[in-house]
Amino acid sequence: QVQLVESGGGLVQAGGSLRLSCAASGRTFSNNAMAWFRRAPGKEREFVTAISGGGGTTYYSDAVKGRITISRDNAKNTVYLEMNTLKPEDTAVYYCAAASRMFLRTTYYYPNEYTYWGQGTQVTVSS
Prior knowledge:
This protein is mostly beta strands. Helices cover 0% and strands 46% of the residues. The strands form two sheets. Strands 2, 4, 5, 6, 9, 10 and 11 form a seven-stranded mixed β-sheet that branches. The chain has a four-stranded antiparallel β-sheet with strand order 1-3-8-7, with no helix packed on it.
């Protein structure tokens, strides 16, 4: 069982930056590939980025590539989402998710690839 708790959301002006954190329980955090998804008002949940258990493989959606960086510190059981040059369309609830495997499969962008989910943290970008 893995429990995930996101933090770091808030209100920021367009062009600004935020850093989200996701703290995970469990003794073998490095065994879990991790991902961030987001859900904007009135829209479906959307893949943002993913990282393998060891941190060596990452994927990004086209919408955020070049502006967002995912990283992890397995010693601290934490995954991070560094967001820069934020846009109003980045406004959403951001969810951290953990897979029950270390490696990312080719279907890494599907929500059902991930077994555990956090409660989400709101990010609001004003124009």
